[in-house]
Amino acid sequence: MRILLLTDNFVPEINSPALRAYEHAKRWVAAGEDVTVLTSIPNFPTGRPLPPYRNRPYQREIIEGITVVRVWTWLAANRGILWRSLDFLSFAGSSFVAGMFQDADVIVATSPQLLTGLSGRWLAALKRRPWVFEVRDLWPDSIVAVGMMRENFFIRALHRLEQQFYRHATRIVAVSDGIRDRLVARGVPAEKVAVVPNGVDLRRIAAAASPESLRDALNVRGKFVVGYVGTHGMAQGLEVVVRAAQGLSRAEIHFLLVGEGARRQPVMALAHALQLDNITFVGLVPLALAAEHLRLCDAVLIPLKRTDQIEITIPGKIFEAAALGKPMIVSAEGASADLVQRYGAGLVVPPEDPEALASAIMRLRNDSELREKLRQGGLALARDFDRERLADAMLEQIRLAAGAAAMPDR
After folding, report:
1. DSSP 8-state assignment for residue 163
2. Residues 215 and 361 in one domain
3. Same domain, yes or no, for 190 and 338?
4. Cβ atoms of residues 69 and 36 within 8 Å
């Protein structure tokens, strides 16, 4: 079967959509499928091409058996509405044009940027092929939820487009039960929607290097290190971490924030204004080095802002930390908090509450038995969310879509 996967993000980018697409596609190739990925130049979240890539109209490469076709897009940093909208719209157009020349038996379009679905639908109609819409985030709801935009004509137009995608897609795959439930509540037939959650490549995580040299480079030897590794965006609300660090400035606790994003500069400015010397900011790092920074941490933070999307959100960072056996402090409510509590993999505190976050950090620092208990819970969670098994589940949904389209009554 020839699978054409449309995704705005792909390795060497290291955000959750890029890793999910890559690790799924790699598994599908191993299962004997012919996989072509249509994507953009690696640039997330800075909007600048990662060396040695350049923003050209068409580039083709092979990554672990996956045919990767990269197209030109209007590059924009992960901040602001206008330039990001141009980025998303240009990818829809460029991927559609490039996709016209790719053979496919089934097309898979993945969010979180909704307009990838536009290209998927167009290509499916042009080629008369089934298509699967993978819903990783409820756009445009999440745009409004984090305060990037208010309800307006543009948001209403996106809602109408979103409903068209749900109606025309052969199959829909949500990444959480909460997203599936909201789709069904909006009138999407339940039998059309499956759930394939996020997970982690246990083999990749196991290969992460020892962080001893990194510990010395960051001057954190002998300290209890609390870390966050990921996008510094609006949905994370990392200001709460800085405020917690302020409350623990006299403890032998060091905070490590690794990554880039729309809120990185304001968060750094807050730490500077508070004259904190117990927090270190590290910019964007390659995938292997990101895992090394995670391995360095004694506890991992998973913060989320309180929005109407928090109930259905399960950050991919949870699975990465769990696979490394790192105790987590989840500053959230809903699905992510429930998951961590169910496995006993971390402590849960209210979102945007620096005092509660600081208290949980101190509790972990002072209780080695608790840390070991949470470590074991995390490892159990990671085993149940092994990416290989989940990639197989996604492949089954793709095969269902292909089979449904082949039925005579269709």
Report:
1. H
2. yes
3. no
4. yes
Summarised one tens digit per residue, pLDDT across range 172-203 is 999 999 999 999 998 999 999 999 999 999 98
CB 96 within 8 Å of CB 123: yes
Give the residue among 351, 271, 360 at the shortest CA–CA distance from 303.
Answer: 351
- Condensed to tens digits (0 to 9), the pLDDT of residues 105-150 reads 999 999 877 789 999 999 999 999 999 999 987 766 555 455 555 6
Q: Supply the CATH number for residue 191's domain.
A: 3.40.50.2000
Whether residue 92 contacts residue 102, with contact meaning beta carbons closer than 8 Å, is answered with no
Q: Are residues 87 and 126 in the same domain?
A: yes
What is the spatial distance between Cα 42 and Cα 151, in angstroms, rounded to a whole number?
Answer: 31
What gap in Å lies between CA 398 and CA 392, rounded to an integer? Answer: 10
Burial classification of residue 100, based on how many CB atoms lie within 10 Å of its CB (0-12 exposed, 13-18 middle, 19 or more buried): exposed
Q: Residue 60's domain spans which residues?
A: 2-199+386-406
Half-sphere exposure at residue 251, Cβ-oriented, CA atoms within 13 angstroms: 19
